């Protein structure tokens, strides 16, 4: 056997381990930001060039799991490190803080509150893991002065109250998988993103975030009969799979009375997800500056659309598929009512003839049906229709 073959292996170069150390401080700090902050603090003991690396990471990630809390010294060491960073005039500001903890645990919450205050980050992500049962205890997130963006994901938790000096300056709020019983007052909020959120209180965002410019509702449940989106500065609105019905009333006729009154609205997307949402009782839209309208399958028994002068909307489409519970004749009737609102100068009796070149009816297979049922899809190309300056 040729034992010399092993000598051909590449030997480790002692200098190779210093390649990262030789990088600029800012780049090293970005690289180690992928680690949890406790690990980054430990890196500071490597050598002199790494001594204050934890004072410069743009992202700070901290998980307050039961295992870490059992080691009280470890979490206190993290807090001390953040405190020293806050006092170091040469340190970099924390851009993003990602902290995970069980919000129903008072001990964890106290640690988290102190960490949030010490980090004073511009963007804060809070995750509360599912504890295995519903949590209906009230809790509060105290925002530091630098906070401008907040994301909270808390499965089966009541949404937190938002307080602290950063609450009045918050610009973007994202809430995921929680229950809202009351709205926080956020006078500077510009963007709101709700995903898989159950809203038990009245849905009237204009009362608590009057400067809102973007609103995104995805797979949300509004347990009220009425939705009032009356916002003077709203420019972008998406309503994807929005279920509107009073609590406990899931059967019978449609309940939702939806009103959108937004004089600055430019883009509006409406998407209906079968099986998880319901038809609307009525839908009213007043948006004189609307430019883009995309509407998929959401049925409303009554529809009123006011977009000001004819031809205001320049792009988009309206689409209905008969697979979504109703016969195509109902969807066609709703489409004509919507087009009447988009073309107010065209007499109602002439709408069908006017838009006929831009409306298509085609057969399409139902991918969810095992018997290859063929359904119909009705589409109006608003981009082509409005380009004709009707």
From TrEMBL:
<dbReference type="InterPro" id="IPR036047">
    <property type="entry name" value="F-box-like_dom_sf"/>
</dbReference>
<dbReference type="InterPro" id="IPR001810">
    <property type="entry name" value="F-box_dom"/>
</dbReference>
<dbReference type="Pfam" id="PF00646">
    <property type="entry name" value="F-box"/>
</dbReference>
<feature type="domain" description="F-box">
    <location>
        <begin position="17"/>
        <end position="63"/>
    </location>
</feature>
<protein>
    <recommendedName>
        <fullName>F-box domain-containing protein</fullName>
    </recommendedName>
</protein>
<dbReference type="InterPro" id="IPR053197">
    <property type="entry name" value="F-box_SCFL_complex_component"/>
</dbReference>
């Amino acid at each position: 056997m040729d034992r010399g073959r092993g000598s051909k292996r590449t030997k480790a170069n002692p200098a190779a381990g210093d390649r990262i150390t030789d990088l600029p401080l800012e780049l090293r700090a970005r690289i180690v930001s992928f680690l949890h902050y406790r690990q980054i603090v430990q890196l500071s003991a490597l050598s002199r060039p790494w001594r204050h690396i934890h004072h410069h990471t743009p992202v700070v990630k901290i998980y307050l799991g039961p295992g870490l809390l059992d080691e009280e010294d470890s979490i206190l060491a993290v807090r001390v490190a953040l405190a020293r960073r806050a006092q170091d005039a040469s340190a970099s500001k924390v851009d993003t803080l990602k902290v995970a903890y069980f919000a129903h645990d008072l001990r964890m919450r106290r640690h988290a509150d102190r960490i949030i205050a010490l980090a004073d980050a511009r963007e804060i992500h809070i995750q509360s893991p599912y504890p295995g049962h519903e949590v209906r205890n009230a809790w509060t997130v105290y925002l530091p002065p630098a906070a401008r963006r907040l994301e909270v994901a808390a499965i089966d938790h009541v949404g937190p109250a938002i307080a602290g000096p950063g609450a009045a300056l918050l610009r973007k709020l994202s809430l995921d998988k929680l229950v809202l019983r009351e709205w926080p007052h956020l006078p500077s909020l510009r963007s709101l993103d709700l995903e898989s959120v159950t809203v038990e209180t009245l849905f009237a965002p204009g009362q608590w975030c009057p400067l809102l410019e973007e609103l995104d509702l995805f797979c949300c449940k509004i347990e009220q009969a009425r939705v009032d989106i009356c916002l003077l500065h709203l420019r972008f609105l998406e309503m994807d799979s929005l279920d509107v019905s009073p609590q406990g009333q899931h059967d019978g006729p449609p309940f939702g009375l939806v009103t959108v009154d937004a004089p600055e609205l430019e883009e509006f997307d409406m998407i209906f997800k079968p099986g998880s949402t319901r038809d609307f009782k009525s839908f009213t839209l007043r948006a004189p500056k609307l430019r883009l309208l995309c509407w998929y399958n959401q049925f409303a028994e009554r529809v009123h659309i006011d977009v000001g002068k004819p031809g205001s909307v320049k792009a988009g489409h309206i689409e209905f598929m008969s697979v979504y519970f109703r016969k195509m004749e109902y969807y066609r009737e709703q489409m004509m009512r919507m087009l009447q609102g988009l073309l107010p100068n065209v007499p109602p009796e002439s709408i069908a003839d006017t838009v006929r070149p831009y409306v298509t009816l085609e057969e399409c297979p139902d991918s969810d049906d095992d018997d290859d049922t063929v359904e119909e899809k009705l589409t109006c190309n608003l981009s082509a229709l409005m380009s004709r300056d009707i």
